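Form 7-S
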Amino acid sequence: MTTLGLIGSGKIGSTVARLAVAAGYDVVLSNSRGPETLSELVEELGPRARAGTAAEAAEAGDIVVVTIPLRAYREVPVAPLAGKVVIDTNNYYPQRDGEIAELDDESTTTSELLQAHLPESHVVKAFNNIWYVALLQLARPTGAADRSAIVIAGDDAAAKATVTEFLDRIGYDTLDAGPLAEGWRFQRDTAAYAGVYSGPDGITDVQRATADDIRPKLGLAVRYRDM
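Output:
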């Protein structure tokens, strides 16, 4: 079975880890505070989980999820991720990450920044537009009538196929939004952002979202400069 490495083990990272373990993956978790701070999560996840440094998670993972604040993307280890599929969950929040000129002028996107930092890796954008509670609650087995979809973007077809298989195994269909440059269509504050998985009572009102539900919202996306 494939090993999943996690660089970052916050709400999204730990939820992806739970789904992966349930699907039969081994997981190696890491965070910025050290492996010892993940002992409770590792114990909860069971024998398929262990904690390590970011470099160890990158080295161990056949697929690696980068799920850290965007401001820290340059700290992601480069060498151990060469040739690997890297799932990027990042969003840009200037109040948290500081102002990043090329994102402010929209000359690039968050996942393209990570791809530039990891030139020999294959970055696929995913999980950035779903709240962690919805991510956990909406997972369904392959073929289930009430399955939801996760949007991805990436420049490498084989990497996207790998991520599509991973998503299927953890409980989701996939909607391919195109290359990384199109990742802005489901970034923060767009029509396809977190609200797509929320019902009329707000973000805590989790609701199913299929590819057919999400696809038209990608077409409604508006650049920040045009909002």
